[in-house]
Amino acid sequence: MPARLIHRPSGRVARPIAVGGVIAGVVLATLAGSGAATAAPDGPGPRYAPGADGAGDPYFPLAGNGGYDVQHYDLDLDYTLPAPAPAPLEGQLTGVATIDLIATADLDRFNLDLRGLTVSSVVVDGKSMAFAHEGDELVVSPRPKLKAGQAASVVVSYGGTTTRPVDIEGELYGWVTTRDGAMVVSEPDGSSTWFPVSDHPTDKATYTFEITVPEGSVAVANGLLEGSETADGKTTWRWNAPDLMAAYLATATVGNFRLQQYTAPNGTPIIDAIDVTRQPNQYANLARTAEMLTLFEGLYGDYPFVSYGAIVDNDSVGYALETQTRSFFSGSAGLGTVAHELAHQWMGNQVSPGRWADIWLNEGWATYSEWLWTEHNGGLTAQARFDAVMTSASQAPWNTVLADPGPTGLFGTPVYTRGAALLHALRVKIGDDAFFDVAKEWVARFSGGTATTADFIALSEEISRQDLTSFFDVWAYQPPKPTSW
Ligand code: TRP
Ligand code: ZN
Hints:
- It is built from nine helices and 26 strands.
- It is an alpha+beta fold.
- The strands form eight sheets. An eight-stranded mixed β-sheet has the order 10-9-13-7-6-16-19-18, with no helix packed on it. The protein has a four-stranded mixed β-sheet with strand order 5-8-12-11, with no helix packed on it. Strands 21-22-23-24 form a four-stranded mixed β-sheet, with helices on one face.
- Helix content is 22%, strand content 31%.
- It is globular, with a radius of gyration of 23 Å.
- The protein has helices at 280-283, 289-300, 335-344, 360-376, 382-391, 413-430, 432-445, 453-464, 469-477, and strands spanning 21-23, 26-28, 31-32, 35-36, 49-50, 68-80, 91-103, 107-113, 118-124, 127-128, 130-134, 137-141, 151-162, 174-178, 181-185, 205-214, 218-221, 224-231, 234-245, 252-255, 257-263, 269-275, 310-313, 327-330, 351-353, 449-451.
- A hairpin with a 2-residue loop joins strand 11 (130-134) and strand 12.
- Mean pLDDT is 92; it is low at 1-41.
- The structure holds tryptophan and zinc ion.
- Tryptophan binds next to helix 3.
């Protein structure tokens, strides 16, 4: 896969990449991360410094990294479970991750995020490199040092015992070991539990996977299945995900799956992976996928990726996730949730949050899309759903700043319900034409990248030609229930 430069329209968080400054001819070395920048002796040549240990997201300061931009991850994984699976559930994962990146600063050091696994070697452009694993930060010191604009290939060999990791709220996520494999769902910062990664949505990349599992097990990743080969009691599953993807949307779920493939009316290949223990009523709603695709393409524009499909597993993380091109469902797939995860492919995946504080742009849109699907399907109207939220006794949506829910509030009621209600209120305020123009232009303008609440407000004002300051103030920035807007 050739590396390609990515145009990100805007909305990238500012990365705290420190460089030496030159003021009135004096070279100043600045501190970056935990180490001092190494100033070149003289003149305008490269001044090497360490890349930042985070992407600059206030909610997850160490998620992602500075100083480079990943183009592509090639993940070669080998995974086995002791049989029968013991308690606590544990598996053995070995990986070789080949990471194609481009330096965005002159680097004498850069970090990757990796949690709970052990690194055996790091090779940069064919040469073995010194590295250190400090907490969840893998620190690599490339020699020769990397110049801004330079491409590098970083090969990390690693492995260890897999467990059932939890996120900041205590919810299962990342590489979650199961009786028959693993559920792999990594929002918001769980990708580092299974590969070395720049784990922030602002660094999207393309992916390829080669996942080797015991013969009889199926490994399901993003994109298209390129093939599988069996030898010596093991099967290697090869998947290709050529669309730019945020790390939290990558999956490599393993289990006893039946794969079913068909083509949607728009030509999109649909590949579903259904755990063999599932009963038809647990996945019957997936049959509505093509109809939903048609609805959302009409609202948001062409389906953005090479394929779609669902994974319905027999274990549960307690929620579903919109893993890119292959949504994950815990145990069974409810109709509203099937619509919700599909809508995320545009709203969250094609356009991702610039900072985790902007999560309402994912969940508000996905929830509102559920409302629109329900109305389309002959159920309650979006207006009726809105009215129900506004007249409900529940105060849950009215105790949070929607655009700043805090790192433990990312998946709380306010983000979903108030987010959807905001969108409906906006639709009524600016009219259907402007509202759905905003939706389409949002995905078109920020496709393949990230955007923020400020970008959304600016676009809504641009398209509606209205001053929406007080609208967004009461809906997104003040906790109380809006009374007029
Ligand atoms: N983003 C998922 C969805 O709404 C939900 C999700 C991710 C979640 N992690 C979570 C929900 C943890 C509850 C707890 O489709
Ligand atoms: Zn969602």
